[in-house]
Amino acid sequence: MTTAIRSSKGIHIALWVTQVLLGLAFASVGAMKLTQPIATLAANMRWPGAVPAALVRFVGMAELLGGLGLILPAATRTMAGLTPLAGAGLATVMLLAALFHVSRGEWAALPVNIVLGGLAAFVAWGRSTKVPLGLLP
User: Fold this and answer.
1) How far from each other are the two terminal CA atoms of the chain, in whole angstroms?
2) b/e string for 87-98 if b means 16 or more Cβ within 10 A?
């Protein structure tokens, strides 16, 4: 086995682990934002009480669909091109979340946004250029 193939397999495995963990995390948090009352969300996270409920639900839907988009298209090999788009979309959501939290002085949320956004960007990059799902042996 050549070094390039071993490297691609290693990155492929790292991408899959990242996709599954990140997908489950985003899908579960997104479902929570979609289903729990705003008052309950505001008690756990301050920001849902400071923005319109429709925005909280929209963010929840984006996170739920993005999380599913990291896993399902890749797992089924059906429309696998959606996986890097889901990664890019979630990276964008995390960038906007970071800017929002900084504007409110909520510095404690910033590391979470940076890590999750970086992992989502890794999936977007990896599945679009480094190890696209359609090109694996």
Assistant:
1) 12
2) bbbbbbbbeebb
